[in-house]
Design goal:
Layout: H1 2-24, H2 55-59, H3 74-93, H4 97-119, H5 124-138, H6 147-151, H7 158-188, H8 195-208, H9 210-235, H10 246-269
Helix pairs in contact: 1-3, 1-4, 3-4, 3-10, 4-5, 4-10, 5-7, 5-8, 7-8, 7-9, 8-9, 8-10, 9-10
């Protein structure tokens, strides 16, 4: 229980930092300077006691102490989501590299979901940086082998086969979706899939490998289509006027899929 509690506390603190990233990165602001957070409305520096994850939001009634402007619900949701993900990973996998891998992956996904919903931006710091992190982890937390086992000599060893699977998982789906987006743009003369989405797909592939990435994309496309149609029908907007935050659906599908197949399934197998 102490381990899980420590993981939840770490998730709350890291979630608070992720909120800084969600606000500052799309605006090309430094995430380290100024070190103290400030209110986006009145730009007053936020005191440390007003910056305690979740607790301060509740104590302030969701409003800035100075200007009384409403604080976005995104702040406690990101903090609680990150804390929950960290807690589940450690509860299922213990203090291990696998728990660290999926905790970091969850934090990246939560950040990208939030930035895509709010700003329709998927920062390179998390997509490209996340891809690099995923490739490194693949050398120490073996991926389920798929295409790599067929096209790469087995003699190179399990570790490098796992890295190869991560490279294939990152490159193949991202390349295919980039191709679809390019064709769509040429035919319809408007952007169909942003480059940020392609980079995010590569990041997910580096962490999960080819099979789970393809399943993630199938689920995201299905859910995104249904939600998009419901939104268009409810608002009576034209499909061409609605820009679907596809990255948020990809992130939600990847987060749910990872928790179910890579984390919770291990937890249940122990019982």
């Amino acid at each position: 229980m102490i381990e899980i509690g420590a993981a939840i506390l770490a998730g709350l603190l890291i979630g608070s930092f992720l909120n800084v990233c969600v606000f500052r990165l799309p605006r090309d602001l430094s995430v380290v300077r100024p070190a103290r957070s400030f209110c986006p409305a009145c730009e007053k520096t936020i005191a440390w006691y007003d910056n305690i994850p979740v607790v301060s939001y509740l104590a302030l009634g969701g409003r800035c102490r100075h200007c009384k402007e409403r604080i976005s619900l995104r702040y406690p949701l990101v903090e609680l989501g990150t804390a929950a993900a960290f807690g589940v990973c450690v509860a299922a996998l213990g203090w291990s590299l696998a728990a660290l891998k999926y905790s970091i992956f969850s934090a990246i996904l939560i950040t990208l979901i939030a930035t895509d919903i709010e700003e329709r931006i998927l920062p390179d710091e998390f997509t490209l940086g996340g891809t690099a992190i995923g490739l490194v982890f693949s050398a120490f937390v073996p991926l389920e082998l798929g295409l790599a086992a067929l096209v790469v000599p087995v003699a190179i060893g399990t570790r490098w086969l796992s890295v190869a699977e991560a490279v294939i998982g990152a490159g193949v789906p991202a390349g295919v979706f980039w191709g679809f987006g390019w064709v769509f743009e040429k035919v319809r003369h408007r952007e169909g899939l942003g480059l940020g989405d392609v980079k995010m797909i590569a990041m997910i592939g580096a962490f999960l490998g080819l099979r789970l990435t393809l399943l993630t994309l199938f689920a995201a496309s299905l859910i995104g289509s249904v939600v998009g149609l419901i939104y268009i029908f409810a608002t009576r907007k034209k499909a061409a006027e609605y820009h679907l935050p596809f990255g948020s659906f990809i992130g939600a599908a990847a987060l749910a899929g990872t928790m179910l197949t890579e984390v919770v399934s291990v937890w249940l197998s122990k019982k």
